[in-house]
UniProtKB/TrEMBL annotation:
This is Protein GMH1. InterPro entries: UNC-50. Keywords: Membrane, Transmembrane, Transmembrane helix. Its main location: membrane. The chain crosses the membrane at residues 139-157, 169-191, 222-241, 248-272, 292-316. It comes from Lodderomyces beijingensis. The lineage of its organism: Eukaryota, Fungi, Dikarya, Ascomycota, Saccharomycotina. It comes from the Eukaryota. Residues 1-40 are annotated as: Disordered. It is found in: Membrane.
Amino acid sequence: MPKRLNLPYTTQDLFPQSNTSPSKSNGAPASSTRGSIISTPSSIYIPRSTLHQSKNGSSGTSGSASTGVHFENRFKTIRTMIKRLFKPTTLDFETAIWEIFHLIVNPRKMYRSHYYYRQQQQQSNPDGKTSYSRDDPSFLILVTGFLCISAVAWGLAYSPNFWDILKLIVYMVLVDFYLSGVVIATVTWLATNKLFNLEMEFSRYSVYYIEWGFCFDIHCNSFLIIWCLLYVVQFILLPIIRIRRSLIALILGNSLYFGSIAYYFVVSFYGFNSLPIISSNIVKSSSKNPARVLQLVVVAGIIPLLALTWLTTILLRIKVADRMIDYYFD
């Protein structure tokens, strides 16, 4: 059988289920993450309070200890990012290139490898909350460099003026990538913490808390396909896409835009679904079942809406590519 393609096309891919069966030894349920992005047995998430209860007979750490752990993890990640940014020898570009390649061709593999490693860290340090945000700026440096190169290429093709090219670089990097990322990350951070938090209060000290940095990383990962299709592939296919009154040009240009946006949400779905607090049986067995809601929002909501919008633009002969190019260069 040939290896599956990147995009999910089975119900098992789109709606990963966790099979549970009684244990023969002690009657406790034995969990399985079959179909989930995190598919190894060691990836099952156990809240910190549960671990403490099993070891010490207590319900968890004290409030002051939990506060210290969370602030320590948060500032440790920021300090590590800043230190590595000014020490090129500590940057891991090899891993960043590997992540970029697999985020484009096989995002599930990237998330499975990356977050399995993070969960191994959590198991080795059960008393602290593992940060799933990046602590290496190599990925952001490479993506920023790719966007700058793309901006120069587009500028030379449409507006070969130094200041115009510089403005295009600033707009594509700061507005398209970083500013939109900050807005999207903030919205998803608020929404996911409201949706996935199984406790009464929304608190950064909750075991179910999702960091803002992780939401921004999800945006950066998902933005790669937009860069690949709209900044690179579209530029290569411009002679075809810009053909006037051509049905092929219309379908090709619109498909690039709506396809890249749809894939953006699919990769984002993979990213959030890879979190152990979402893919674990503890969350799925709750009355909220946020993992199911996340799947339905992306698969049954956003993607069909994008497909309907794409069909409408084709029927009305609206060339999205031409309008976007005119917006950037007129």
